Amino acid sequence: AKHVRELSIYRQLIKIGKGLADTAFQPKDIEVNELLDLSEKKIFEIAEQVSRNKQEITNVKDIIKDVVNRVHEMQEKKGFKGTETGFSELDKLTSGLQNGDLVIIAGRPSMGKTALSMNIVEHVAIHNSIPVAVFSLEMPTEQLVIRMISSFGRIDSSKLRDGNMSEVDWNSFNHSVRAFEENTILIDETPSITPTEIRAKCRRLKRKYPDLGLVMVDYLQLMTVHGKSENRVQEISEISRSLKALAKEINVP
C-alpha cells in the first residue's frame, strides 16, 4: 500500500511538473510571480495530502503523561496556560490564546475589530517579545504601523499624520519606534489572499522564526478560495476550516 501511494505521488508530481514546464515555455498572460505562486500552491496541496495520510491513530496511554503534566502546569500558573492578550478580564475567561486554536473576533462594521486585534498583536510582540505575523487584506502596512505606534505611545493619530507633535509626543514617538524596532511583527498586505497562500507563507515564517507565537488575519471575509463554491457561506466555511488546520499544523493561535 505504501508503494502504491508513493507511485501516486510521483505521478502527481510528474503531471504538475509537466504542466508548469509547458506554462513556463509559453507563459502567455501569466506573470512570473503568479507562476511561482501557482507552483508553490500545487506542491503544497500534494504535501498536505501526504501529511494527512501520515496521521496515525494514537493510544491514550501514550499521551496521558503529557495531559498530567499540562494539568500540573495549569495548577502552578493558576489556570493560565495560553499567550496573554493584554486584556486581563479576557485572559481570565479564556486562559489566554491557546496554541492550535482558531479565534474569530466577530462584530458589525466599524466596531473596533481591527483595533482590538492589533492591540493583541502589539501586546504579544512588544510586551511578551514573541514574533507575530499579520495578514492585512484591507489596511496598508504603513497605516497599520501608525495605528500601533499611536496606541503604544498613546499619541493622537491625527498628530502622527500631520507631524504637529509636542516634545512629550516626540519622546513617546521615539520610545515607541525603538520598541517596534527591537521586536518582530511581520506584515503581509497581499489583497485577496487565499488560505493556501497564507498556509504556505506561515510555513516559511515558522521555519525562519521557530518561536512564532501568533498569526492574525484581517479580515476573513476579504479572503478568496480557488475554485467555485455554491455560495459565499460555503466559501467562508472552507476558509475557516483551512485556517483552523493551519493553527493546528504550526501550533500557534
Structural account:
This protein has a 3-stranded parallel β-sheet with strand order 2-1-3, sandwiched between helices. The chain is 60% helix and 6% strand. The chain has a domain at 97-253: 3-Layer(aba) Sandwich (Rossmann fold), CATH 3.40.50. It has 253 residues and is mostly helical. It is globular, with a radius of gyration of 22 Å.
Q: Descriptors for this entry?
A:
mainly alpha; Rossmann fold; 60% helix; 253 residues; 3-stranded parallel sheet
The count of helical stretches stands at: 10
The first-to-last residue Cα distance is 36 Å
Number of strands: 3
Reported by name, the CATH topology of the domain at 97-253 is Rossmann fold
Broad structural category: mainly alpha
The overall pLDDT, averaged over residues, is 84
H-E order:
HHHHHEHHHEHEH
Give, in spatial order, the strands making up the sheet with the most strands: 2-1-3
Shape: globular
What is the name of the CATH superfamily of the domain at 97-253? Answer: P-loop containing nucleotide triphosphate hydrolases
CATH architecture type of the domain at 97-253: 3-Layer(aba) Sandwich
- Proportion of residues in β-strands: 5-15%
From the alpha-carbon coordinates, what is the Rg to the nearest angstrom? 22 Å
Uncertain segments of ≥5 residues (pLDDT<50)?
A: none
Largest beta-sheet characterization:
3 strands, parallel
Helix share bin:
55-70%
The CATH class of the domain at 97-253 turns out to be Alpha Beta
